[in-house]
Amino acid sequence: MIGQFVAVFLFTACYAVMRYAGFGGVSLVHLPAYLMNKSIAMAAMVSLFLTALAFVRGERDRSRFWSRASSHLAGMHVLISLGTLSGGYFPRFFDGDRMNLTGEATLLTGALAVYCLWRLAPDGIEQAFRRKLNALFCTLAGGHLLVMGYGGWQQVQKWHGGLPPITLLCFCLCLASALLFLAGKEPSGA
After folding, report:
1. Which residues pair with 95 in a beta bridge?
2. pTM (2 d.p.)
3. How buried is 161 (Cβ within 10 angstroms: 0-12 exposed, 13-18 middle, 19+ buried)?
4. Which of 92, 140, 159, 166 is the one with CA 20 to 30 A from 172?
């Protein structure tokens, strides 16, 4: 599974660099934080989807691996996001020196989603509760992505290189994951 994780991370890193630096005009000077943060966030959502897929298939070890990968990546995303949270990086989130409604709603939904991940960390959680909490995390993370990116999703002509925004791809992964967690049958013996 480590090899699969590396493949996921390399794919998301290449996508972020190609979309934003290759086609979007973002300097590679911003690779260590801004661009890698986008890659890390996307890798977290791919890992979440793989968690949901393994969960409904009853692949407990695989589900646990991808769940932990998703949680660790999301934690890294939070730390980098807080470090780069400024009007220079995220002008749509600010009016002057204060956050606007979009910025504050993005921050709140992200914080609530991370709280769900924190609650999911212990191994002894009953599977039915874990499934519901995962679905809630998907919903909150989806809300975080929706508030942050919806305006850009509709402007296809502005997509860098014709590549969909990472927020849109991650939103779709969140939605698919939530559906798997909610609609999937509880694995027998879990």
Report:
1. 98
2. 0.92
3. exposed
4. 92
